[in-house]
Structure formats: C-alpha cells, structure tokens
C-alpha cells in the first residue's frame, strides 16, 4: 500500500541540505550523566533477561554483559502485539516512546528500547535499510569536527571496537540511492536507552543491534515516526 507523508522543515526530507549536515552526527560518544542519576535498585530481573543480556565473548570484540541496573525494564527486548499498516520486515522507530519495532507476521513485532537524537537533531521520515556492517569504522563528518575539534584525530576514521560510537553493528539508512548519513547502531551505555542523547542516530544496546541486524533484510523499509509526520491511505 502506498502512503504519502508530510514533514516539517526541521525533519528528515529528501533533498534537504540540512539532512547531510546533521547526518552521522548522531553517533557521538555520550557521557554518563544520566547513569549518575539512576541509582535506585531495579525490580527483580528474570533469569531469561539476564541470559539475554549476558556477555558475548565470541564477538570480534568481546561484549560485556549489560548492566541491568541502568536499563528500565520497559526497554527489554521482547516480542509484542503491534498493529500497523506497515508490511512485515519493516523497521518502525517510535520516537515518542523510544522504541524500535521490527514488524512480523500476524500483528506481532520484535520491540527494542532505543536512544534517540536530542533536541535540534531529531529527524523523521521514510527510507530503507540499505545494508549493515559488523564492527564498522566510524568517520565523523566535517561539520561535526567543526563543532567538536577533539574529533579531528578521527577525520580518516575511528577503528572498530567497544569505544567506537557505532558499536557492534550499524544499519545504514538510504533514501533512493542516497545515503542519509543516519544509522541504527550499537551502544554499551545502558543508561542512554529511553533518552534523547545523540545527535540524530538511533542507538540500541550492542546485544539488541546484533539481534536486529541478524534479522533485517537489506532493502527493508524503515519508517521513523515524528510528531509532524502524517500518513494517508
């Protein structure tokens, strides 16, 4: 089913120069200020969740277990009922609730908790997952280096690893044949899930982005829902 949509100027539009300027800026490292605020003990955590977010020693870079003290249980990966007009295989990012859905058959979806772009860098629209990469190199755009001169050392690319802003996987979002410079990527910072912490990209826990990347087919549609996006039909 075809759909039309309208976006405000501050959102993700085909052909806007601001999109490229803000691009991969969303993949910057993040401080642990939020973590310092989340000191309350979590409710009891099931063994299944602990196992789901346990260490991944067989990855190219061994991924430590998620510190579940800093992850609200609402953002645990889980299969949920999800009514949508989108076809199975579509990725839907619900920016209002900090969720990413991978649509399945029969009204179901796999839901992941997400960290999103902070005010001034948020975006929304429709595109496709062109491809994904394991443990990718991250190259900050020139505009970001101008804003953050300390990133100059990575002008030609930051090698992969746990401290790389793209983390364990990156899924690359295109419109047509054009790279939007936005990514879905991994993070080890559990306290950032459920918050607007980056400059535009969608971040999932390393464990969740690996799970998603293993299941999303290249070329799948992605819809990023924003407050000014309307669909018809």
From TrEMBL:
<feature type="active site" description="Nucleophile">
    <location>
        <position position="201"/>
    </location>
</feature>
<keyword id="KW-0961">Cell wall biogenesis/degradation</keyword>
<dbReference type="GO" id="GO:0016757">
    <property type="term" value="F:glycosyltransferase activity"/>
</dbReference>
<keyword id="KW-0378">Hydrolase</keyword>
<keyword id="KW-0808">Transferase</keyword>
<keyword id="KW-0328">Glycosyltransferase</keyword>
<protein>
    <submittedName>
        <fullName>L,D-transpeptidase</fullName>
    </submittedName>
</protein>
<comment type="pathway">
    <text>Cell wall biogenesis; peptidoglycan biosynthesis.</text>
</comment>
<dbReference type="GO" id="GO:0008360">
    <property type="term" value="P:regulation of cell shape"/>
</dbReference>
<keyword id="KW-0573">Peptidoglycan synthesis</keyword>
<feature type="active site" description="Proton donor/acceptor">
    <location>
        <position position="185"/>
    </location>
</feature>
<dbReference type="Pfam" id="PF03734">
    <property type="entry name" value="YkuD"/>
</dbReference>
<dbReference type="InterPro" id="IPR005490">
    <property type="entry name" value="LD_TPept_cat_dom"/>
</dbReference>
<keyword id="KW-0133">Cell shape</keyword>
<dbReference type="InterPro" id="IPR038063">
    <property type="entry name" value="Transpep_catalytic_dom"/>
</dbReference>
<dbReference type="GO" id="GO:0018104">
    <property type="term" value="P:peptidoglycan-protein cross-linking"/>
</dbReference>
<dbReference type="GO" id="GO:0071972">
    <property type="term" value="F:peptidoglycan L,D-transpeptidase activity"/>
</dbReference>
<dbReference type="InterPro" id="IPR050979">
    <property type="entry name" value="LD-transpeptidase"/>
</dbReference>
<dbReference type="GO" id="GO:0005576">
    <property type="term" value="C:extracellular region"/>
</dbReference>
<feature type="domain" description="L,D-TPase catalytic">
    <location>
        <begin position="89"/>
        <end position="225"/>
    </location>
</feature>
<dbReference type="GO" id="GO:0071555">
    <property type="term" value="P:cell wall organization"/>
</dbReference>
<dbReference type="InterPro" id="IPR006311">
    <property type="entry name" value="TAT_signal"/>
</dbReference>
<comment type="similarity">
    <text>Belongs to the YkuD family.</text>
</comment>
């Amino acid at each position: 089913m075809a759909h039309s949509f309208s976006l405000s100027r501050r959102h993700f539009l085909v052909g806007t120069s601001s999109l490229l300027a803000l691009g991969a800026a969303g993949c910057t490292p993040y401080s642990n200020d939020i973590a310092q605020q989340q000191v309350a003990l979590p409710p009891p955590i099931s063994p299944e969740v602990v196992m789901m977010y346990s260490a991944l020693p067989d990855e190219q870079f061994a991924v430590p277990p998620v510190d579940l003290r800093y992850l609200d249980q609402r953002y645990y990966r889980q299969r949920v009922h999800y009514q949508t007009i989108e076809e199975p295989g579509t990725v839907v990012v619900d920016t209002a609730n900090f969720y990413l859905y991978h649509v399945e058959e029969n009204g179901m979806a796999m839901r992941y908790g997400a960290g999103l772009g902070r005010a001034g860098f948020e975006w929304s629209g429709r595109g496709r997952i062109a491809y994904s990469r394991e443990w990718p190199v991250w190259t900050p755009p020139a505009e970001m280096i101008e804003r953050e001169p300390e990133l100059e050392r990575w002008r030609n690319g930051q090698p992969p690893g746990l401290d790389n802003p793209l983390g364990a996987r990156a899924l690359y979002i295109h419109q047509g044949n054009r790279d939007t410079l936005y990514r879905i990527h991994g993070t080890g910072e559990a306290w950032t899930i459920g918050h607007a912490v980056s400059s535009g990209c969608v971040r999932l826990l390393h464990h969740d982005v690996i799970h998603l990347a293993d299941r999303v087919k290249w070329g799948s549609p992605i819809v990023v829902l924003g407050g000014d996006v309307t669909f018809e039909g």
